[in-house]
Amino acid sequence: MSLQKYQTTWVNPKEYVGYFTFVDILDSCKFYSIGKNGEFELRLLITRLKGDTDENVFNLGFGVWDRQRKIVDDTIETRNNDMQQILATVADKAIEFLRKYPLAALYAEGSTVVRTRLYQREIAKIIDDIPIELRIDGLIRKDDVGFIPFRKGINYDAFLLSIK
C-alpha cells in the first residue's frame, strides 16, 4: 500500500491473560497514534473464539490499549486525525497475516454501527490503493443477503478480508 503506516511491534499473546478463557490469539501487535490529542497505544489482535469449528475464519480487532484493565478498548476515539494511517496499518498487518495463511479470512466489524460506517467510508477512500490480491467483502444482514464484494455506496454491517 502506498498510504503512510505506523511502525508496529509484535506483542506476545501472553500479555492477554484475561482473553484466554474465550479466544485463541493467533497474532498481535502494537503501534502508536500520535497527534493533537496525544499519544495512544493501539493494539491489533487476530483471534478465534474458543471452540469455533470454522478453522479458517478469524476476527480482526483493534483499539486503544487500556494498561490498567489490560484490555483492548475498541470504543475509544483518539481524534488524532490519523484514521487513514491507522487503517492502513491495520490493513498492512491483515495482508501480512493472509499472505502467511492464504486460506484464512479475517472478519472485521466496528464496535458500533457508526464506527462500521466510518471504516466503510475510509475503505472506500483507499480501495484503489489496496493490493490487488486482497479481497474485501461486505456483509449485509438485512434480508440475509450475506457477504458480497465491497462496492462504494452500499452500507455494510461487517467486512471479510481474504486473499483472492
TrEMBL record:
Alphabetized Pfam families for the sequence: DUF6934
InterPro entries linked to this entry: DUF6934 (IPR053865)
Protein name (Swiss-Prot/TrEMBL): Uncharacterized protein
